[in-house]
Amino acid sequence: MDRREAVIIVEGLTVRYGDNTVLDNVSFEVYKGEIFVIAGGSGCGKSTLLKHIIGLETPYSGKIIINGVNTTSIDAEGMEKLRRGIGMLFQGSALFGSMTIGENVALPLTEFTDLSQNAMNLIVKMKLGMVDLSGYENHLPSELSGGMKKRAGIARAMALEPAMLFLDEPSAGLDPVTTAELDMLIKKINEGIGTTMVIVTHELETIFNVAHRIIMLDKETKGIIAEGDAKELKEHSQNHRVRNFFNRQVEDKNN
Known about the structure:
This protein is 40% helix and 25% strand. The protein is α/β, with parallel strands linked by helices. α3 (101-112) packs across α4 (117-130), α4 (117-130) packs across α5 and α6 (176-193) packs parallel to α7 (204-210). It is globular, with a radius of gyration of 18 Å.
């Protein structure tokens, strides 16, 4: 693993909204095939960082390089091309309520490919099977549980077989059993296909279950206060904010 390939490089990223600095001079790398978690308490800029990585927002300063392409200096056409290799699961799943699950999953195929309807139907069937939703093609999102919606969202995010998958708080609003099932699915996809995954979460169980490596953001310092293996950080970090994060999560779960 010494020669790991960095597929995402963030250099000196600063995010400001008016006079409010959210992230200040943040730098890190994500390696090919790893599950990389962006952790931290609420309001520390986790989702903001994710939006900047995938090009939904433009940073105040700094560089974001994905597969060798500087996303902060390419045109809209170049960004669209880059996004075809990226899957995204938004916090609320973002499924279209008026469309069936099958139509939702087929959406990226309709938009970005010239495949026949039969070919698209086959891919939709395969992707739903991958997330244990076989037979749900004709269901509407309103007919699915929260966990099933998240899995359908992952199926749609994987429709174009992206090399990278970004997940924003995937277990938000889910019960512990459903969260554990989703964690297992994330690991299964990563181990089976080798998809690089970047996950934003503050859920301790998810961090310990899936993360190969984490960075922890901090609201006060507006940057990274810890990086590495989650268990190592929990047991050996000298930073009281890191220890408080882990201990507070444990207390929250017990309440």
